[in-house]
Amino acid sequence: MLNSETAPGVGDIPPETFRAAAHRAADLLADYLEGVGRYAVLPPVRPGEVSARLPAAAPEAPEPMETILEDYRTLIEPNVTHWNHPGFMAYFGITGSGPGVLGEALAAGLNVNAMLWRTGPAPTELEERVCDWLRQLLGLPEAFKGHINDTASIATFLALAAARERSVPNVRARGLAGRPELGLPTVYCSDQAHSSVDKAMIALGLGLEQLRRIPSDERFRMDTSALRAAIEQDRRAKRNPIALVATLGTTSTTSLDPAAELAEVAAREKLWLHVDAAYAGSAAICPEFRAGFAGWERADSIVTNPHKWLFTPVDCSVLFVRDPAALKRAFALVPEYLRTPEAGVTNLMDYGIQLGRRFRALKLWFVLRAFGAEGCRARIRAHCALAQAFASWVAAEPDFEVCAPVPFSTVCFRAVPDVSAREQDAFNEKLLEQVNATGEVFLSHTKLRGRYVLRMAIGNLRTTEGHVRRAWDALRNADCGMRNAE
Amino acid sequence: MLNSETAPGVGDIPPETFRAAAHRAADLLADYLEGVGRYAVLPPVRPGEVSARLPAAAPEAPEPMETILEDYRTLIEPNVTHWNHPGFMAYFGITGSGPGVLGEALAAGLNVNAMLWRTGPAPTELEERVCDWLRQLLGLPEAFKGHINDTASIATFLALAAARERSVPNVRARGLAGRPELGLPTVYCSDQAHSSVDKAMIALGLGLEQLRRIPSDERFRMDTSALRAAIEQDRRAKRNPIALVATLGTTSTTSLDPAAELAEVAAREKLWLHVDAAYAGSAAICPEFRAGFAGWERADSIVTNPHKWLFTPVDCSVLFVRDPAALKRAFALVPEYLRTPEAGVTNLMDYGIQLGRRFRALKLWFVLRAFGAEGCRARIRAHCALAQAFASWVAAEPDFEVCAPVPFSTVCFRAVPDVSAREQDAFNEKLLEQVNATGEVFLSHTKLRGRYVLRMAIGNLRTTEGHVRRAWDALRNADCGMRNAE
What we know:
The structure is a homodimer.
Chain A: H1 15-35, H2 49-52, H3 65-76, E1 88-89, H4 98-110, H5 121-138, E2 145-149, H6 152-167, H7 171-174, E3 185-190, H8 195-203, E4 211-214, H9 224-236, E5 240-247, H10 259-269, E6 272-276, E7 301-304, H11 306-309, E8 317-321, H12 324-331, H13 361-395, E9 400-402, E10 410-415, H14 421-437, E11 442-448, E12 451-457, H15 465-477
Parallel strand pairs in A: 1-11, 3-4, 3-5, 5-6, 6-7
Antiparallel strand pairs in A: 2-8, 7-8, 9-10, 10-12, 11-12
């Protein structure tokens, strides 16, 4: 009974069963990606409905793969929000492209944990190489070394951990508590920065009160004078400014902080400069977009997410660091069982908090090769052109207005019926609900200067001008009870 | 040119290209999983060799999927460490089982980010349900709610963050620095606990000096009296004991801390009790192994990794928490753009530091259904039986000794040639190198009480008695220059 070759019910599913199921899965994937546009973007499902159709307990006996795949097709696939739908224009539009999906599938088969070079030689070296390909595409200096994390939230957390390590003596060993000699470590970002900066402040024990959210200007860019004043005031109060987070492509409007000015401030004040370019970084592969990024090459760390706008399935977030040793100083710990004889190799576990590491480089390699650099640029440009077209339609329509500049592929806009400000907000909220209920499109919202604003975020490879036009028609034709043009 | 339907070079790869490539990938996966045993477990590749075969820059023009998949087959697949190999017995043996691989592939196609219920209804509800299936299989009380993280490192970090939140007033807002009124928040674990506890201490700003590594007894279990004494001493020193990490299945020897005793201490001392059962938790699906876990049902949080010993591809780590609101209090932040109209639903982003969340429940659902509960138990039992068999062979051989009890599927052992202690260590190190160089098996090592010890960790579904026997033959026949039996 010890030998799984001879014991039925032990071992993996039989090879011929797996092969047949894998081909069935290949067709399910192909059918889905080809036909996803036939679904409503937001599935018409109420909370609890899926749950009610799932058994209360795991089955005791094995179930056939055909049954499982069929349940996937009938219960799961129709009840997801279709991020791969051409009408998905909420948050940031993303695409799990075909090449990326296949890279992920093959990585799952290898099931490598590349925590050490020894436990994943090709994964480690491919990750270094493909991050360097991306670095070159973005026009960043050779000094930046990239590695892949799951999310930008983790990347920003790691960057601020490195900043803390650099500026708080012996913080690894002693921590932050019970050290009256420490000035309060203080971090700066704009009022448009992502909530992941807040989460990092909480996680690192720095505290939200030590995050200075600097006001942004009328174009939603961090106000450098206000930043300088805040730092000066904090220094006078014996605080310890340690880091500055510049956002290039903010979540609400995709605005760009003035990176060159902020790099000057960071250099003079000896702050760790972290650039959050999670969404918009991908645009820097097109030279014509680089001007907005000028100055980021002076950062200490930059995060950009190929899983956002470089057609790679979640998760794949690249963190470029000028001094990878700084990350190692913050986190590296090598217990005995992970000591290996190879000298001078990269051990990816040294750069972060997670020990386990999936082989995420494979899918990014597939994407960059399948589309080629020129193909990636063409797709980014197409998305930006669609956004510009939409913005021009909105601007030409008296009942609507564009609410922020459109540097990339995301448009903030709203209806402006001739009613009070509060009623306008309510109108737009209702408009969003109605448009999303059509199933043709999924838009999201934000607040800008206290006002409710809609967002159209283009980033899906399947999105065409036709989809954008249908979204626009839905917006104009929605009946929200107080169209000012009627 | 705005319409990607009509613009070549924009959009995803053509559907027919994708379908053909997906079927090719299905065969690559099936060939790999069927034939992985033909590879050397550790690939015969030197640092830099893969890198040297990769172009220095991304291609400008698109490359055909066939070329990319062929490069995968010839350059990547042969140069990974084969975690799915039946002779992989290092660290903890794992398996990316066939059903799990297909679940991962389909999840990649959906590319859902289930940060909110709204952005992934079925993924959110399936995650809750499948975690509850696992809870029942493990025999844990209904009070535990599970969610899936990438790694146990993150889970332990979240648990200790929740402990910090509970015991340090207003830590979210104020952080830890500059608060002389705070007693030093202090955490306890055994000297056998995983390095992820150390990393969490660093990350959270608590500092390594605030981690008390309590000595373990001769069976590598935390010594409860020593724990009690340490807490008492710390309280006298005005420290603030906040959490206790019990390990059920330590990394070196898979020893089990006395959970019932530790639960008593935690209750009396009002410590957050976190149980790290990343590896061994899976064994609790077999009632006959439950005795060793007794007391864990009183924990505040428990982490177990289906990606370790429940046949699910990395990453899939389940964190069970008795009071999920504690995690929310520690981390939840809802920026305007993520406010949704659904009331009372679970939004998975609230439970951790990462905003983005992959659809990891699908693969675990596939695994639990394809094998069934009884099939999962049979496989765990088969692995434990193989380990017992190996341990009995080692024990029967005068030149070798078993170095720790074998509660599960991992055996710590070493050769004991008749030489000095230092020479014994060197001998075992050389023995490990030689055996691993055969390509038939990959073992790892640890240090126990300062001595170099080998580890055989069984956890792959393809591992049979034949593989274990070949490993044993390789160990006995290695020529390390000073066999005491010769």
